[in-house]
Amino acid sequence: MTTTTAPAALAPRQDRSAPWLLIAVAVVLTLFIVVVPLIYIFWRALSEGWGIFVQNILAPDTLHAIWLTSVVAVITLPVNLAIGTSAAWLIARFSFPGRKALLTLIELPFSISPIIAGVCYLLLYGRQGLLGPVLAAGDVTILFALPGIVMVTLFVTSPFVAREILPLMQAQGSEQEQAALTLGASGWQIFRRVTLPNIRWALLYGAVLATARAVGEFGAVSVVSGAIRGQTNTLPLQIELLFNDLNTVGAFAAASTLTLIALVVLILKTVLEGRTA
Amino acid sequence: MMAMAVASGGGRQRRVLPGFGLTMGLTLTYVGIVVLLPVIALALKGAEIGPVRFWDIVTAPRTLAALRLTVTAAALATVFNAFYGLLMAWILVRYRFPGRRLLDAMMDIPFALPTAVAGLALTALFSENGWYGQVLAPAGISVVYTIWGVAVAMSFTSIPFVVRTVQPILEDLDTSQEEAARTLGATPFQVFSKVIFPAILPSFLVGATIAFARSLGEFGAVIFIAGNLPMKTEIASLLAVIRLEEYDYNGAAAIALTLVAIAMALLVLSNWLQSRLTRRRVPA
């Protein structure tokens, strides 16, 4: 009631004090929700000293988890770059029946939660799954091994690159590529000399986001990896394992490495956003 | 299938760019194997179960309890994110203050941080001897291993959605209407509720819908803090995984399909809201 009938003389004072109150509330909330958890990760990781921290990182299982996560990232990155670019080229440069449907399909993994993706993979490749008998007959191992982890990570990360470069390629149009074609350039030459320089920052941005996700993915990988200690445990899964073992400091040590990666990604993201804008 | 270069030059002679066959083959094969085939496996499994068994699985007490917990906690998380996200979008766009850009960058941390890391940190912070738990426990508030913990984890991982959908709309908002309202004697509250809020409402709802969908699907952060007690703090997606581990593929598929159906319904809702949003922004 007072706000609707406030005398005009009061309005300016309200104007001056309200913003600072709002900003203070926002800053305090953000401190408690975002900043403190971030600091807490490093604080707990180092709570027993640098010696223990290093020992925790160098524990064989954790080291293996770091190795496995790196392998997954190294395999998924080039695949995501190639497929993302291929999909964007197809959708931005040609019109064909089913183009919209294909785009929806490419973006589908964004609307399916990773844990469901993991369930889908198990229903497909599991012992009683759709292709289970075929795999067993051919002695092919996909689940609870590297191939399954890589494939489900690809599922989760597949839309990132295309989503970054597609809008850019659509906005730029194909004028320059048409000109190159008229001048007799081959498809590969057009892509390397004309398209790639135009989309490189967006491509890098998409690659960074996809790789960050590949490194940090938990739900999807946890379903298909079987979380075998020292064998199929990726770094995020290793955090859960250490936590369940009540080795909290060890879990935080493992988590701090992922947090550092996340912070680097954020910095890269800020830099690249400036370039792509 | 006929390939045609996307026409944008209106009537000029255009040649077809190379690479149609290659990119089409590559993209279709890849999306088919990596994305479509697993999803089809889920759909086929669901069809195999049959409607009666499907209904039995979904309405079993443990499934219902898990679904109820998931939806309730996601709703709590979304209510919080709606207020917090709107506040953040508002101050980041409307005010200039020291540290604003840093605060803006902070909004991306929940996306950048792996969910398992977030889950671990929140669980330790809110446990009885953690920094937050020490303060909350004497007050009789327990977060870890309760629905509140689930909601906390869900809200953390979906923080950016409302902020990042409202922010650009607020930035592009024409301020002349506000000024007119102010000149006519409207109070700041009236200006906000009668002029600004209706303009950003569609984007606000889109952000909240996506945040809700993401919360429903959140797994990594939640399982650390929830304690995962059947009938009490077990989320639906975890129950699907448990069913898989018990080799109850039907149970897993039915629960997974239910979650996919809810997610798809929310996606349709958000697309509908988005189309309303764009229509509003382009005056006829």
From TrEMBL, chain A:
InterPro entries: CysW_permease (IPR011866), MetI-like (IPR000515), MetI-like_sf (IPR035906), Sulph_transpt2 (IPR005667). It is found in: Cell membrane. Pfam families: BPD_transp_1. One of its GO terms (cellular component) is plasma membrane. PROSITE patterns: ABC_TM1. Residues 66-273 form the ABC transmembrane type-1 domain. The keyword Chaperone does not apply. It is a multi-pass membrane protein. Keywords: Membrane, Sulfate transport, Transmembrane, Transmembrane helix, Transport. The keyword Transmembrane applies. One of its GO terms (molecular function) is ABC-type sulfate transporter activity. Its main location: membrane. The chain crosses the membrane at residues 20-43, 63-90, 102-124, 130-156, 202-228, 248-268. Part of the ABC transporter complex CysAWTP (TC 3.A.1.6.1) involved in sulfate/thiosulfate import. Probably responsible for the translocation of the substrate across the membrane. The complex is composed of two ATP-binding proteins (CysA), two transmembrane proteins (CysT and CysW) and a solute-binding protein (CysP). This is Sulfate ABC transporter permease subunit CysW. The gene is cysW.
Automatic annotation (TrEMBL), chain B:
Keywords: Membrane, Sulfate transport, Transmembrane, Transmembrane helix, Transport. GO terms for cellular component: plasma membrane. PROSITE patterns: ABC_TM1 (PS50928). It is found in: Cell membrane. GO terms for molecular function: ABC-type sulfate transporter activity. Its main location: membrane. The chain crosses the membrane at residues 20-44, 64-93, 105-127, 139-163, 249-273. It comes from the Bacteria. It is a multi-pass membrane protein. Residues 67-270 form the ABC transmembrane type-1 domain. Part of the ABC transporter complex CysAWTP (TC 3.A.1.6.1) involved in sulfate/thiosulfate import. Probably responsible for the translocation of the substrate across the membrane. Part of the ABC transporter complex (TC 3.A.1.6.1) involved in sulfate/thiosulfate import. Belongs to the binding-protein-dependent transport system permease family. CysTW subfamily. The complex is composed of two ATP-binding proteins (CysA), two transmembrane proteins (CysT and CysW) and a solute-binding protein (CysP). NCBIfam families: 3a0106s02, permease_CysT. This is Sulfate transport system permease protein CysT. It comes from Paracoccus sediminis. The lineage of its organism: Bacteria, Pseudomonadati, Pseudomonadota, Alphaproteobacteria, Rhodobacterales.
